[in-house]
Protein 1
Amino acid sequence: MTSCLIPLLSLPGGSEWIIIALVVLLLFGGKKIPELMKGLGKGVRSFKDGLNDATREINDAADSVKEEPKK
């Protein structure tokens, strides 16, 4: 069963990326693509900042638990 799913989950190859890029270019046009990439970059940056904040909060909570004296 899982061997049937492996081809479906593989990443596109070189020629497939070219076809995808051409379809995106046709759909959005050359002027809209930089705006889309800028928005994508901001989204990725926001996600990384949120991930770093969550990691920092978890580490701070773990450190505060370690520092509390045991009764």
Note: The two ends are 54 Å apart (CA to CA).
Protein 2
Amino acid sequence: MTANNQVTYNEAEKRYEMPFGNLVVYANVRKDKNTLYIDYVFAPQELRGKGAAGEFMSQLMDIVRAEKLKAVPICGYASSWLRRHSEYQDLVSD
């Protein structure tokens, strides 16, 4: 499963989004100085189990790295995803 777009920040909604056809995977976030709090990751029912949220998370973590931020996963999905992807451990705030 690949997205037809990159992850972008929606200022009005205060979230990062990634479209998959006419559906959107997103993460509600808060930024504080150099920290990105990932409050909630949502994938539509039709995309669950298809790798959409994982694809979204890896692009989101690439943004975190590029912007020299640290991530704080509040959401259970984000937290478990980060535990399974050691290549992003350096981005998780202590």
Note: The first helix runs from residue 52 to 66.
